[in-house]
């Protein structure tokens, strides 16, 4: 009987049975994360703005004289050189007038010669009292009148010659004809447009710059421009002018970027994306954009210290490629989480790895 009681006692008492108590379940395993160092570098703030390519200049070439178009030597799309002939007006009537005017001038010049010779003869006779003073003065007046008449007729002739010269219309600049306003056989009035010539080298890109940036850029600053129509190519530009009159609706100031376009690759009207350098180089704290997470207080990052994630609030600034400027309690060399931070909690233990299974590359 005593033996049976002993067996029952040993079964009911854990200390005597040799059985072990159940183990407690272990804590949450460390989160797998990737990290990147906080950097401190000298940077320049860059902003990208959208602008439009425009000709450097656009000239409407007009007719200086009225007349009928006899020859039109250029068409739209043609490249022209400075002083190249564009259009010739009919000048046949003017040439007839010129021939007549030359004959009149020649006759007047002959009369002038005779009058001056007669005046010289009477001048000698008057000096020896052989002719009256009135005869001498009449000869002098006739000679002077002949000189003035020749001069007046020559002016008339030169006017006709100038009118004929203006019947040929030349290109005032080297460029490209973008519009033709007249055809052979049409009548051109004085001042009527003949063609429009644009200068495409250099070319300019007009960019509306927000007022918060315009005070931080200067004439002569460099820029980079890419065009949607020219993929894979980057063009260097220079700020040529900052127009000090804002658009009232958008509060932007027109800024003109000059770009070399010797091959004519850039066309007027192309959409350009202009990167401007804003302000002077400055020291900044930089982190990868992937380090930013949205928390209740705004943007934050997780800093790893002693294998523990610590949430630090930051204020994002301008981006520099894959990096972004931030303000906050960060120091160069600290490690911030760039992968796996979406599931982290402040104070959570972490394990830094080179890759996280299941994450998108």
Q: What is the H/E order? A: HHEEEEEEHHEEEEEHEEEEEEEEEE
Shape: rod-shaped
CATH H level, superfamily name of the largest domain: Efflux pump adaptor protein, beta barrel domain
How many strand segments?
A: 21
Low-confidence stretches: 1-19, 357-361
Q: What is the fold's blueprint, element by element?
A:
Blueprint: H1 2-12, H2 14-17, E1 31-37, E2 39-54, E3 57-62, E4 67-72, E5 79-80, E6 85-89, H3 92-127, H4 133-165, E7 168-170, E8 175-180, E9 187-188, E10 193-199, E11 203-210, H5 211-214, E12 222-227, E13 235-242, E14 252-259, E15 271-288, E16 293-295, E17 298-305, E18 308-320, E19 323-328, E20 335-339, E21 350-352
Parallel strand pairs: 1-21
Antiparallel strand pairs: 1-20, 2-11, 2-15, 3-10, 4-6, 4-9, 5-8, 6-7, 8-10, 11-14, 12-13, 12-15, 13-14, 15-19, 16-17, 17-18, 17-20, 18-19
Helix pairs in contact: 3-4
Question: Could you walk me through the main structural features you see in this protein, from its secondary elements to its overall organization?
Answer:
- GO terms for molecular function: efflux transmembrane transporter activity.
- The chain has four domains: 31-42 and 283-352, Beta Barrel (conserved putative lor/sdh protein from methanococcus maripaludis s2 fold); 48-56 and 200-282, Elongation Factor Tu (Ef-tu), domain 3 (Beta Barrel), CATH 2.40.30; 63-89 and 170-198, OB fold (Dihydrolipoamide Acetyltransferase, E2P) (Beta Barrel); 91-166, Helix Hairpins (Orthogonal Bundle).
- The longest helix has 36 residues, at 92-127.
- Helices cover 24% and strands 40% of the residues.
- Helix 3 (92-127) runs antiparallel to helix 4 (133-165).
- The protein is an alpha+beta fold and 361 residues long.
- It is rod-shaped and about 145 Å long.
- A hairpin with a 2-residue loop joins strand 17 (298-305) and strand 18.
- A six-stranded antiparallel beta barrel has the order 2-11-14-13-12-15.
- It has helices at residues 2-12, 14-17, 92-127, 133-165, 211-214, and strands spanning 31-37, 39-54, 57-62, 67-72, 79-80, 85-89, 168-170, 175-180, 187-188, 193-199, 203-210, 222-227, 235-242, 252-259, 271-288, 293-295, 298-305, 308-320, 323-328, 335-339, 350-352.
